[in-house]
Specification:
single chain, 383 residues, mainly beta
């Protein structure tokens, strides 16, 4: 047990069950950010609105942009050519401050397949197992109508878009229940193990033994551990819970991860979860290496380098060189930072779920769960 005078600082993001406020930044589309990138650039993140396309605080004219959804041109007969709020996209174009013109918009879902386990929500967070992948839904998840978070059930086929954390859990910003007739069963993820003609992506076993399923972009014709791939095929759920789900592959190919390779000298905005600790000024957002220096700004202004911890959701903006992004700005997403002594008289529960109030903020209840990351006790290495 921590002493009564211990200072606690907690993050509210998609991994933390805080019962007080919704997102400070997502509620306004990130519009508190007043400086954007300039010139040719790339923006990778969650669509927060339309009129133009809005992501990472920028309003980009998409009227002449090419749009692809998993490699298929957007349908001109659909609103926004099939793009929807909550989808994670990569936009290439020209930027000036918080405005610009999108030249291309690329959407790639994380997966599309049957829900193999769908337990009820706990503290407003619902965790699904979809083809061996952990999908986390919370108040920031946009559920395509007419479904709701609580109406989704095991056996539904869903399309999921979101950002992965350090445990490769997908924090869904968008989920849609699909008509089985129209569904394309597919999963994108990192190869964890290869044994003969069986590979794993987290708790999914993929059988790629059929002739002709391996794309010629895979060196040697055999998937390797650590490769980021897309697999399509036919799938089945294994029960009871926590068993490995299976997929018989009809196609296996290499897939760009996250924002992909960012050309040298290009300005970029990359949104995601911090997946490694900050060491000597460097850390990872998803699979993107980010470097900070004395010129890096932090927003909101009460956040700083000490808030860069695994599990925090951030957006880094800067310039790329050798696929390393040197950040001129780090913006913390969907976070509320509270500082106060813990009122031990209100502390209840047992690990990992505690509820308590703060001495300096009476009446506000904080709830933790297994995904809660407490603030580190010591400064990040190198700072």
């Amino acid at each position: 047990m921590k002493p009564a005078n211990q200072l606690f600082q907690f993050f509210r993001n998609a991994r933390l069950a805080t019962l007080l406020w919704s997102s400070l930044l997502a509620s306004c589309g990130g519009s508190v950010i007043t400086a954007g990138i300039g010139g040719t650039g790339i923006s990778y993140g969650t669509v927060t609105g339309f009129g133009s396309i809005i992501l990472n605080g920028s309003h980009l004219d998409d009227s002449t942009a090419s749009v692809t959804l998993d490699g298929i041109p957007g349908d001109e007969s659909l609103p926004h050519r099939g793009l929807k709020q909550g989808m994670v996209v990569k936009v290439s174009g020209t930027f000036s401050g918080n405005t610009g013109t999108a030249e291309s918009i690329e959407y790639r879902n994380n997966l599309e397949g049957p829900i193999c386990d769908a337990p009820p929500s706990v503290n407003g967070i619902r965790t699904l197992r979809v083809l061996g992948q952990t999908v986390i839904l919370d108040a920031t998840t946009i559920v395509d109508s007419p479904a709701t978070i609580d109406s989704i059930i095991a056996g539904d086929i869903v399309e999921v878009s979101g950002l992965p954390d350090d445990l490769e859990q997908i924090h869904a910003s968008f989920i849609e229940v699909k008509d089985p007739i129209d569904a394309v069963i597919e999963v994108k993820g990192r190869v964890g193990n290869v044994n003969g003609s069986i590979l794993t992506i987290n708790s999914l076993e993929v059988d790629f033994s059929s002739i002709g399923v391996i794309d010629n972009n895979i060196p040697g014709g055999v998937p390797a551990v650590g490769q980021f791939i897309e697999v399509k095929g036919t799938a089945s759920c294994n029960f009871p819970n926590n068993q490995t789900d299976t997929l018989i592959a009809t196609k296996v190919e290499l897939e760009p991860e996250g924002a992909g390779i960012i050309p040298a000298g290009v300005h970029a905005e990359v949104e995601g979860f911090v997946t490694t600790d900050l060491i000597s000024g460097s850390f990872m957002i998803g699979n993107q290496e980010v470097v900070i220096d004395g010129n890096t700004r932090f927003l909101p202004e009460d956040f700083d380098v000490f808030d860069i911890v695994v599990g925090a959701k951030v957006e880094a903006e800067g310039t790329s060189a050798n696929n390393v992004l040197t950040a001129t700005k780090i913006s913390f997403r969907e976070n509320v930072k509270l500082e106060s002594d813990v009122d031990l008289a209100t502390l209840s529960g047992s690990s990992p779920t505690f509820s308590f109030e703060l001495v300096g903020l009476p009446g506000i209840t904080i709830t933790t769960n297994s995904a809660t990351t407490p603030f580190p006790a010591s400064p990040p290495s190198g700072h």
